[in-house]
Design brief:
465 residues, Aconitase, domain 3, 2 domains, five-stranded parallel beta sheet, four-stranded parallel beta sheet, 32% helix
């Protein structure tokens, strides 16, 4: 029987099925951080249950950690408590921990792929919605709640209803200056922030296949922002080349054996999806958001939609969003001054993203009105940035590289955008207060963020190049 890629992976991991209920799904890799794990560890300890398979769990602090002076004691009391609690829990239960200042520490969804922990055909969960990032490798990866984190710690399984299946095709060749972030912001602007609700999305088509692994991770990372349970992309030679020789990837004969299995992970030609959408890559241009959810996006060269272009049921929330952002319906965004630029997060904090910013700003200077935070997604990214001379280029342009962490993506740490200030951010969410109370966030690609940083205003990066 023909199957989709999602079906092949899901069905292979079903331990049992509850009649008219969820599946008991086996989990290959469980990723843990300091924010959603304390109650889960406390829960199994209260019941006298050990971690069932500690070798399948990997932990790192990322959400709450400071991005300066990480060698010092964490000043914020809550952050210090959570990080210390994670350390104690991992020591007590034999869970691998890459703590602050460890060469493998970083944002959990950056280090998994970087270390070769993320592999095709796996089921991967974490107490974080952007676990969907790992789907770029042809894995079924999704976020879970704290009670489910406890369930996986105790049983290495999770109860999960099987989602419906959607395929989104992006066919044709992307234009010059268009990046993976523009692709996914374009898709979300078309399907809306709730258009993927109830679905697991497979991304396909020429334009998707043409993306690097880091670009594919960006797309899958933001599948959650269209309401989907997760996103995935069929593995191919680009995937296999990326994984090979990674720290924890299979080696030698074991790699060859794994590769044989990985090459079977694709959607069969006659497999059927519950929903299928197709977009033309030629229609995609550099994108930016203007509102307070990721679906409120537009081409930088276009206007914010006029009120009569908004569905009647959505006009009230649209107007509320415009009031919060300080914008008007039909207004032109290009040319508007900006206060902050943030390059980082599990969406765009990888070495490819830092390379793009450094390439763009080389020989230029950051605008005086811009405060720029460049935050690598991991210690390995940070190390590469120094070794490749990217830090020198950034510093000569007036930028300063900070230390790894989630940083201003969610302002759970000290990196907060001040109230009323505008930030062009390479992260994944632009909700009210997401980057700090009263902060106004515009999501964009690292290339656009670099162009904004050197001009001090919203601008199509193709005009700067």
């Amino acid at each position: 029987m023909s199957k989709t890629l999602f079906d092949k992976i899901w069905d292979a991991h079903v331990v049992s099925e509850i009649e008219d209920g969820p599946s008991v799904l086996y989990i290959d890799k469980h990723l843990v951080h300091e924010v959603t794990s304390p109650q889960a560890f406390a829960g199994i300890e209260k019941r006298g249950i050990p971690v069932f398979r500690p070798q399948n769990t990997v932990a790192t602090p990322d959400h709450n950690v400071p991005t300066i002076d990480q060698h010092l004691t964490i000043k914020d009391e809550l952050s210090r408590f959570q990080v210390n609690t994670l350390t104690r829990n991992c020591e007590k239960h034999g869970v691998t921990l890459y703590g602050l200042n460890h060469p493998f520490q970083g944002i959990v969804h950056v280090i998994g792929p970087q270390l070769g922990l993320t592999q095709p055909g796996m089921t991967i969960v974490c107490g974080d919605s952007h676990t969907s990032t790992h789907g770029a490798f042809g894995a079924v990866a999704f976020g879970i709640g704290t009670s489910e984190v406890e369930m996986v710690l105790a049983t290495q399984c999770v109860l999960q209803p099987k989602p419906r299946k959607m395929r989104i095709n992006v066919n044709g060749k992307l234009g010059d200056g268009v990046t993976a972030k523009d692709v996914v912001l374009y898709i979300i602007s078309k399907v809306t922030a709730s258009g993927g609700t109830g679905y697991f999305v497979e991304f396909a088509g020429d334009a998707i296949k043409g993306l690097s692994m880091e670009g594919r991770m960006t797309v899958c990372n933001m599948s959650i922002e269209m309401g989907a349970r997760g996103g995935l992309i069929a593995p191919d030679q680009v995937t296999f080349d990326y994984i090979k020789d990674k720290e924890f990837a299979p080696k030698g004969a074991e790699f060859d054996k794994a590769l044989k299995k990985w090459k079977t992970l694709y959607t069969d030609e006659t497999a059927v999806f519950d929903k299928e959408l197709t977009f033309d890559a030629a229609d995609i241009e550099p994108m930016i958001t203007y509102g307070t959810n990721p679906g409120m996006g537009t081409k930088i060269v276009s206007n914010i939609p006029a009120l009569d272009e908004i569905h009647e049921k959505e006009r009230l929330s649209f107007e509320k969003s415009m009031n919060y952002m300080g914008f008007k319906a039909g207004e032109v965004l290009e040319g508007k001054p900006v206060d902050f630029v943030f390059v980082g997060s599990c969406t765009n904090g990888r070495i490819e993203d830092l390379r793009e910013v450094a390439r763009f700003v080389k020989g230029k200077r950051k605008a005086d009105n811009i405060t720029a935070w460049i935050v690598p997604g991991s210690k390995q990214v940070e190390k590469q940035a120094y070794e490749e001379g990217l830090v020198t280029v950034l510093e000569e342009a007036g930028f300063k590289l900070r230390q790894p962490g989630c940083s201003a993506c969610l302002a759970m740490n000290d990196d907060k955008i001040p109230e009323g200030k505008y930030a062009v951010s390479t992260s994944n969410r632009n909700f009210e207060g997401r980057q700090g109370p009263g902060a106004r966030t515009l999501l964009a690609s690292p290339r656009t963020a670099a162009a904004v940083a050197v001009t001090g205003k919203i601008i199509d990066p193709r005009k700067v190049l």
